[in-house]
Amino acid sequence: MAKDYVARPRTSNRRKSKRPVKNKQGFPFGLAVVVLIAIVGFAWGLYSIQGSAPTQETPVVKAPAKAPSTTKKPNALPEKPQQRAYIEELENREVIVESNPNLNQASKPYQMQCASFRGRDKAEETKAMIAFSGLESSIKRSEGKNGVWYRVVLGPYPRKRDAERDRHILQNAKIDGCSIWYWNWD
């Protein structure tokens, strides 16, 4: 059977004494004597060094007195500055601008190559994946000393920044490994 511990009266195993408990701690006379001796010693030390300090007079340095100014009033405003004729100065000024001849020339266009395969069918699959990401690519056939390759390229791009933007779009579509080069073949 289960016991009900909550409703059970609390009993203690200690015996209670009917005698009153006396406070065994009294006034700490020893501590009071030590504190009193320390205070008296400190006061005697201060009294003994009171007259033994050497006295030196420090010279007093006075600030030089200002001569009163007769031309200016103490609350007067400063003189009004003269105005410069900036408009006339700018109209007569000649500005020389050096131009960079390389900036005026059209730079080479860029292309981005995302894959190269031996078979055209794999190149077509990659082209379709790129089309699903919203970009248009083309397949270029190139022949070299290693045989025929089908390259999946995007571009031409007038600036490299445009090619970088499209490469980030392809990276978000999980198409990695695209390289950006100068456009050098048709």
TrEMBL record:
Region (Disordered): 1-22, 55-79
Residues covered by the SPOR domain: 104-184
Domain of life from the UniProt record: Bacteria
PROSITE patterns in UniProt: SPOR (PS51724)
Gene3D superfamilies: Sporulation related repeat
Gene Ontology biological process terms in this record: cell division
Basic residues bias (residue ranges): 11-22
Low complexity bias locations: 62-76
Alphabetical keyword list: Cell cycle, Cell division, Membrane, Transmembrane, Transmembrane helix
GO function term, MF aspect, one: peptidoglycan binding
Membrane-spanning ranges: 26-47
Protein name, as recorded: Cell division protein
Source organism per UniProt: Alginatibacterium sediminis
